[in-house]
Amino acid sequence: MLSYLIRRLGLMVLTLFGISIIIFTLLRVVPGNIVDVLFDAAGFVDPADKLKIEQDLGLDKSIPVQYATWIGGLLRGDLGYSYVSEKPALAEILPRIPITARLAALALLFAVSLGVPLGVISAVRQDTKLDYTLRVFSLAGLSLPAFWLGLLILMAAVALFGSIPIYSAAPKTWFDSLVMYAVPAAAVGLRSSALIMRLTRSSMLEVLRQDYIRTARSKGASDRTVNYGHALQNAMLPIVTVIGVEAAFLIGGLIVTETVFNIPGVARFLVEAIRWRDYPIVQNLVMFIAVIVVLSNFIVDLLYAVLDPRIKLAD
Amino acid sequence: MKPRPEIILPSIDIEAELAKAGANTQGRWGELRFFARRYLLGTIGLVIMIVFVLAALLAPWIATFDPLAVNARHALAPPNAIHWLGADSFGRDVYSRIIYGARISLAVGIGSTLLGGTLGVAIGLTSGYLAGWVDLLFQRLIDILQALPLLVLALVMAAALGPSLQNTIFAIAIPLVPTVARVIRANTLALRELPFIEAAKAAGMSEMRIALRHVLPNTLAPLIVLATAQFGSAILTEASLSFLGLGIPEPHPSWGRMLSESAAEYVRTAPWLVIFPGLAISLIVFGTNLLGDALRDILDPRQRA
Q1: pLDDT digits (tens, 9 = 90+) for B100-143
Q2: Are residues A179 and A300 in the same domain?
Q3: Among the four residues A170, A202, B35, B85, which has the most C-beta atoms within 10 Å?
Q4: DSSP state, A145?
Q5: Is A312 inside any structural domain?
């Protein structure tokens, strides 16, 4: 167990190290840096001014030196300064995290509470009209782009209430804040719920064919006990995996949804920072996302051992 | 010696039995009809895909306007007899732009899936077949690529490469590589142990030849299923990138671009600008998903639900 943990931890650090190199290099091959973007907007370039700003930002140094500076700072908890706002990157990123985290948590809650029961129903009623309908709906859910769904919701809001739900930092009532978060969260979570439903269905069908399910039925256990007590419990393993993976990958949907709903979260911030070539923000945010993904994979693996005693965490 | 009792076979009308089982007995068209009935949803998916491919191929003939033609007098025209699906803020015809947009979506879908698939197959085969340190190296690379969500990696890559069709295809292809590589590697590892590979080795075939001639064809079924799924997500990712302004540049009629951020303003005033491009994206991806599901049932019966 201990050697497994040490090995896993080593691999996680290695992966994050690899990502840091890839992201850093990718950002440096971008044609033009922040200084070019700023001077393009001004329309007038004084080479001396440009050089001075580049020196201030450390952009005149060689790429390995810039990388070492970044990683060195990162290890000390110093993320550098945003090029755009000139505030510490940490101070820019931290306040935006809770907003995105709340959205992600709600989206995941929505996805699980819709996806798992519907998947079970679909499996139990295999090949009925209901199953067929649910399967088509789940495929449709996988096909809708999250940002379009968001736009459709905005459109419905205009048609029903005559206004667009606007994000505010200090919502008046708890109902306002719920709507403010729940609606975008549903737009993001729909796709995940479709994915979870399909996986729950196939995982349940797999289990329902097993001998012990027949045994349970023949000893007179009710449908409810068999389906939820015996089958679902054993079908959970792949479902937990997909939930874990989705938890981290929700960020993709959040990027576009935060943009549509104008929510000042960390996902939309990433896009803004990319547009501005605000390297310190982009590279730190990408690292942050990578840490979340790597950690959630790790947690899923640990959960495996808890859910299925047959799995031993030893290599 | 007693005479053996005569075995009496019940007479079976084979034709009738086959017909009862719903099997094809009427040549090619019958076979097609049989398939369409057996895989109804898959057939619907296939038809949707064919419609989009035809739209892309025949765009110059079925579009009613030049997709880039600006006409200030028709700016924001609602759907009418001239502009079937309305016009955008520059007076460009939405219907024609959607028709031409099919070219971009299909180009990105096919291009990214092929490129990502080829790289993934190359890595997966080498990794699974050669094993050892090569495998270890590729595994770590795959770990790294997989630690970033598709859209995040594509976003950074697209920004790094700059907005263009080729760059968008490349930016989406790379994040597709790890999944293909993993599937192919797992399959290769399983196949390597089978007797027919041993036989090929004993016959003196080179490793390269075995990998390409014997291992690869046997991993084709899961590969096709996976490629269909990736085709759909490539199209969705392109739409998202273009929506965020980091994919296909103006004035090209990318569906995602047509919905770009300003679309939130048109939600109120010009809903047709929001509805139709989004419908096109959803429909083509829906078609892919329907087809993919049927293909999985046909090609990979073990996975059948």
Answers
A1: 999 999 999 999 999 999 999 999 999 988 878 999 999 999 99
A2: yes
A3: B85
A4: -
A5: no
The pTM of the full predicted model, rounded to 2 decimals, is: 0.89
Give just the sign of the alpha carbon dihedral A291, A293, A299, A305: negative
What pLDDT, on the 0 to 100 scale, is given for residue B25? 57
Q: Which of A94, A125, A155 is the last residue of a domain?
A: A94
The Cα–Cα gap between A252 and B231 comes to 17
Same domain, A56 and A10: yes
Together in a domain, A222 and A120:
yes
pLDDT tens-place string over residues B7-38: 665 666 766 776 666 665 567 777 788 878 88
> Does residue A281 lie within any of the structural domains?
no
B residues 97-136 lying closer than 8 A (beta carbon) to A: none
Whole-number pLDDT of residue A122: 93
pLDDT at position A257, please?
92
- Shortest distance between the Cα of A135 and any Cα of chain B, in A, equals 10
Residue A105 sits in the same domain as residue A85? no
Looking at the structure of chain A, the number of domains it has is 2
CA–CA separation, B15 vs B241, rounded Å? 55
Domain ranges of chain B: 41-71+84-304
C-alpha to C-alpha distance for B299 and B220, rounded to whole angstroms: 9
Residue span of the structural domain in which A260 resides: 99-266+296-307
B104 vs chain A: nearest CA distance in angstroms? Answer: 17
Tokens 């990027």 locate to A255
Which of A94, A118, A142 is the last residue in one of the domains?
A94
Residue A59 tokens read as: 């952009």
Length of chain B: 305
CATH topology of domain B41-71+84-304: MetI-like fold (1.10.3720)
For residue A38, being part of any structural domain is answered with yes
Chain B contact for A296 (CB, 8 A cutoff): no
| C-alpha distance from B72 to closest chain A C-alpha (Å) | 25
Which of B177, B289, B291, B300 to mutate against chain A (most A CBs within 10 Å)?
B289
Alpha helices in A125-265 (DSSP H): 129-143, 146-161, 174-208, 211-218, 223-224, 233-260
Q: How far apart are the first and last CA of chain A?
A: 9
CB atoms closer than 10 angstroms to residue A87: 10
Average pLDDT score, chain A: 85
Say what the ipTM of the complex is. 0.89
In a domain, A232, yes or no: yes
